[in-house]
Specification:
The protein is an all-alpha fold. Helix content is 52%, strand content 2%. A hairpin with a 5-residue loop joins strand 1 and strand 2. The radius of gyration is 48 Å and the shape is elongated. It starts with a helix and ends in a 26-residue tail after the last strand.
Amino acid sequence: MIRAELGLGILGTALWIYCLFDVIMTDESRIRNLPKVTWIFVVLITSVVGAVAWLVAGRPQTPQRGLPYKGNTGSAYPEYERPGRFVPTNPDDDAEFLRKVRERAEAQTQEAKRQRLERERLEAEQIERERERRRQRSADPAAQPGPTGNPEPTVNPDPTAKPESTAPPEPTAEPTSD
């Protein structure tokens, strides 16, 4: 006898908890007969009686649909079945797309070739300037190699600068009073 009462008590508590969570989780627009808050209080206060009342009079009769539009078949990816959705096509079937891709690839190839030629031209000009500068150094008789082997300039680059003297300053003699 005690076992039967204990079993019924456990089943009643499980039903009560299930219905309480079901009321809380159900969308308010789908609940029948009473507002959602009222159903929560009915199930909480009257326990098993409120749970049975929820199952009979408050719970939605139809299962909830996954998406809010007609034609939902419940597939794994329903966004692909949405009406008016753009359906991608095979790019090989679209001649306009392929033409644009070829034009863009050719334009990129031409730009890369132009940049490479410009870079080579600038490098050649720099090499030529360096050769010209070396020829001028070797042809300039005024430029003589210094102690380090580098030619020393004979002209002061800054005419307003004072020439540097490497000799130490001479001591000045002050007259002595004897």
